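Hello forum,

I keep getting stuck at the same step: I have a sequence, I want structure tokens, and every attempt I make locally crashes halfway through. Rather than fight my setup again tonight, could one of you with a working pipeline run this one for me? It's a single chain of 152 residues.
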Amino acid sequence: MDLREARYYMEHRMLPHLFFTGPSRLVSVLAVGKGEFLFNIMNDICENNQVKNVYAPKDFEVSIGKAEEGLGIIKLRMPEPLWEPLCYRIYLIFDEPYKKLGYFTVERGAAAGEVFLCCWNTESSHMSFGTEELSEEEEAEKCVRLYKDPMG
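Reply #2:
Ran it on my machine without issues. Output:
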């Protein structure tokens, strides 16, 4: 495993697994641990696979809020991705009883600046919504729209 694979594992396997199997616990831990928690996950993956971790806690940010009444949203800002398909940002969207969950990734394309929006499910498969230049606010709004109506 190299650094790219370690990041991919964290963003596309471990975090979705934690979110889909224990959403309230992950939300609680992110609320307290913020970017330090994400760094610790990345550091553990690197240490367990003898990979040099080039990141610092300040490279990870967590923002928690409400998309609307009864709908939570968490934005995870990841370190600048150097490779496709690593994430710029991840959006976790959930209803308050955690019955409906959405895991959205904003991923680097083949070229720097090329950005893909994807959604992941509990079976670790994903749906790509293509490329589009959006501000972070517009990204979050689009993720909420897709969460509510994936075909809309």
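Strands lie at 61-68, 71-77, 87-95, 101-108, 115-120, 126-131. If your local run keeps crashing, start a new thread with the error log.
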